[in-house]
Amino acid sequence: xxxxxxxxxxxxxxxxxxxxxxxxxxxxxxxxxxxxxxxxxxxxxxxxxxxxxxxxxxxxxxxxxxxxxxxxxxxxxxxxxxxxxxxxxxxxxxxxxxxxxxxxxxxxxxxxxxxxxxxxxxxxxxxxxxxxxxxxxxxxxxxxxxxxxxxxxxxxxxxxxxxxxxxxxxxxxxxxxxxxxxxxxxxxxxxxxxxxxxxxxxxxxxxxxxxxxxxxxxxxxxxxxxxxxxxxxxxxxxxxxx
Length: 242
Hints:
Layout: H1 2-23, H2 41-49, E1 94-95, H3 101-122, H4 127-134, H5 140-154, E2 157-160, E3 168-179, E4 182-190, E5 194-197, E6 200-207, E7 210-220, E8 223-235
Helix pairs in contact: 1-5, 3-4
């Protein structure tokens, strides 16, 4: 009996550990030069001046007059068949200064997400805590949160938090970047939580790992949200990623 119970716990722990581990960029162109040359009034006048004319018959009273010069009307160039050009847009400038307010705000958003998710895993059946964890996410990360909490509920399990502190995120120095409305943060998620069964919470099934992760971030309505993550390395049995 004890051996069967231990095997069930091991399989459940492996399932939830895997579920929890899942959670963690027109050519410019000058305006086309037209090759058509517009005849000018000066050219037309030159042509008239160089063309021989027939003088009027002699008159004893009339004073010879010079014929008036009339320039032919100028013509407009044919319409251009070149498509209009689109100015080349410049990509947003990168922000990498770790002390920049934008970087600090993005890192703080990651830290808040990790804490909210920790609270939700401690009570996976609480819809209020689940919504609070989802509020810090968007895209694939939101689905990861849902799947992790659903796996805990299905297994009758929860993550008992470390009594001293919730899970926390420590950003790697100089490893955050922002370009426009997307960003990326590298760091370590440190968790002292323990997966336990609701029916028998005194026996630990699995202790969550410290994970070296890369968080993909997206700016939505002025708020940085976690859009996805990639686990780079796992560290078992230690509170840190070094």
